[in-house]
Every structure is written in C-alpha cells, then in structure tokens.
Amino acid sequence: PDGPRQPVSSVAVGERLLDVSWSPNGTGVLLLSQRQVTGGKHFLIRWVSVDGVTRDLADLPGEPMAGSWVWAPDGHEVAFLVRISTTALVALNIDSGELRYLDDLRTDGLPTSGAVAPATWVPSGGLLYAAPTTGTGFPGSSGTSAPVLFAVAPGRIDSHRVGDVEPVWA
What we know:
By secondary structure, this protein is an all-beta fold. Helices cover about 0% and strands about 45% of the residues. The strands form 3 sheets. Strands 5, 6, 7, 8 and 9 form a 5-stranded antiparallel beta sheet that branches. Strand 7 and strand 8 (about 85-95) form a beta hairpin. The protein is globular.
C-alpha cells in the first residue's frame, strides 16, 4: 500500500475485474476477472504479491461467487464457491495453484447476507463446511436436506461427516 502503483501486466483487452481479496498474511491479493472466449466466458484467478509479481492460478469455466473467499489463517489456501451447473465449494492452494473440488452445495442452504461461503479453516489446516446430506452414503443419515457439517483434511478431497451437528446461521 505504501509502494508505487503499477498496472497488472497480464490483463487482456476486454477483461473485467470482478473481485479482489487480501490474503490474511498481507503478502498479496487474489484478483478475479472475467473474459470472453469462444462459446462463453472464463474466469481467471491471479495472485499479485505485494512486490508486484503476478501469477495466473486458475482458469475456471464457472463464475466464482464474489465475496465468498474464506482464507486459511496462514494465507496459503483459500476456499470459495463457484457456479457452474451447481454451486461447488473448492479450495485453491496459492503456492502450487492446485484447485480441489470439495462438494456441491445448494444455494438455498447458504446465508443470504454477510460472508457467503459456509466454510471455515481449522488450526490443523483442514476445512469444515456445511452441506446437505444426500440420504445415502453416510451412516445414520436421515435423508433430510438440512445442512450438516463435513470436514476435509489438508490437501484431501474426501470429506467425512462430523457427527450429527447441524449448523445454525447467525
């Protein structure tokens, strides 16, 4: 913030900036932009470090929901929602650019104001999130569509249900 201003060097003509999010460790920002491609739109996530170095991290066919960024406390990973045919929760590793699909979420199960991603990081580096059960595949599932808590270990894509706890939106 105290340094000189400089434009992002890899922005294409006609590309639109949609959202920006500071990392919690203050080392840089994520930029979300949209560009037209043959047959539709693509969404690009870039990392811009405070020293001005820019890296493309993910090129997505679906639109990330602005404001859904949930940062890991160390700033090395961010979870967010993406709209394709459904709304998916994904996690992006800032260092490697690895994108992990975690689960499909129903938009009627999301809060209507404030932070929109129903997820939080735990100190061990795992992620907790709320999603509806499908009624199959989970021991003791009642088949209801009320959201319950799931956990994903660091670097994994397989989630497991955390007891019979149902989250409550405050």
